[in-house]
Amino acid sequence: xxxxxxxxxxxxxxxxxxxxxxxxxxxxxxxxxxxxxxxxxxxxxxxxxxxxxxxxxxxxxxxxxxxxxxxxxxxxxxxxxxxxxxxxxxxxxxxxxxxxxxxxxxxxxxxxxxxxxxxxxxxxxxxxxxxxxxxxxxxxxxxxxxxxxxxxxxxxxxxxxxxxxxxxxxxxxxxxxxxxxxxxxxxxxxxxxxxxxxxxxxxxxxxxxxxxxxxxxxxxxxxxxxxxxxxxxxxxxxxxxxxxxxxxxxxxxxxxxxxxxxxxxxxxxxxxxxxxxxxxxxxxxxxxxxxxxxxxxxxxxxxxxxxxxxxxxxxxxxxxxxxxxxxxxxxxxxxxxxxxxxxxxxxxxxxxxxxxxxxxxxxxxxxxxxxxxxxxxxxxxxxxxxxxxxxxxxx
Length: 395
Ligand code: PMP
Ligand code: GLU
Fold this sequence. Notes:
Blueprint: H1 7-10, H2 16-29, E1 35-36, H3 48-59, H4 72-86, E2 95-98, H5 101-112, E3 118-122, H6 127-135, E4 139-143, H7 155-161, E5 166-172, H8 184-194, E6 201-205, H9 224-227, E7 230-235, E8 248-251, H10 254-267, H11 273-284, H12 291-308, E9 324-325, E10 336-337, E11 340-341, H13 345-355, E12 358-359, E13 361-362, E14 372-375, H14 380-394
Parallel strand pairs: 1-12, 3-4, 3-5, 5-6, 6-7
Antiparallel strand pairs: 2-8, 7-8, 9-14, 10-11, 13-14
Helix pairs in contact: 3-11, 4-11, 5-6, 5-10, 7-8, 12-14
Bound molecules: 4'-deoxy-4'-aminopyridoxal-5'-phosphate (PMP) and glutamic acid.
């Protein structure tokens, strides 16, 4: 801890996903042959039609500051996308484009949370929900789940976690890290609880919407009695393999969108102009244009599940979406392998890094201390080699 720094940053955890990716990079530079399955990052190139529109935007001399909440044409493309893919109606004042969905989430936490407000996080949750909420003064309340219920909360779990201080709930479906997808029926059952607590805001992170292997994506905002307090978060990082282009967006109640616009105007301004132009092209195209990536992820899911089934002590659910497996590896707790005693998921993940040269992320970072997250947004060759290395290291 550095006392010259703010308490804010001293108390904050480093993003475990990014930290593991950095560590893998460092070890590679030292000459180690590390297979990185830690970062949730598609290994595909950006589709050509999207690249071409970015090149065109440069040649068309897009260069200046953009409106804080995004180009009008992009907001229109987002509105059309929400209608086409989700059956949701928004008007432009309800849309804010940001520098990645991560910034959208940070904006929301900053504009909605006061000191001591409680934020419900069905666990496992995406790593940054917790620290973003705390940064804004929130107190996180985890709602634990188990592999037996496919890592999904029930209405009873939800109701038990609500207190007079509950301000919001944040979840992703498809879920990073578990891959679980809430069905319309399951979301309705959760909505039936939430309607009794009108002050709770729902942050529905739908960034993996298209990476869904069973079909049937539903947004909480589809329910008339939830629409005016649900904020849908989405972006192009995952479905369009545009992680480094940094475009995310929200669709939500007007008063929340206006506040995000105000917040962003003081912190980063509008998102990158070239990436915004390219995102218009991406979102205007039918999702069938990116289906080849989803099909590839689906095959890799089967590949990794088959290989995992062959590793003793790994217990995995079948992820319905996203590109992660989240096996329970608690079987290894208390065991000593290659003179290393494993007492936690972090120990296990570090053991895999050191003895199998495979980078994963500890489940502790996602609020589940029994699991590790393995990303299969990687080539078949790397998945096969990584699982073989893990199996060898453990047996
Ligand atoms: N939400 C979830 C669930 C994610 O996995 C990610 C991954 N980065 C984000 C938000 C942030 O995405 P972006 O790249 O748009 O900031
Ligand atoms: N969302 C990705 C992940 O979970 C990218 C890393 C990050 O933004 O934290 O790995």
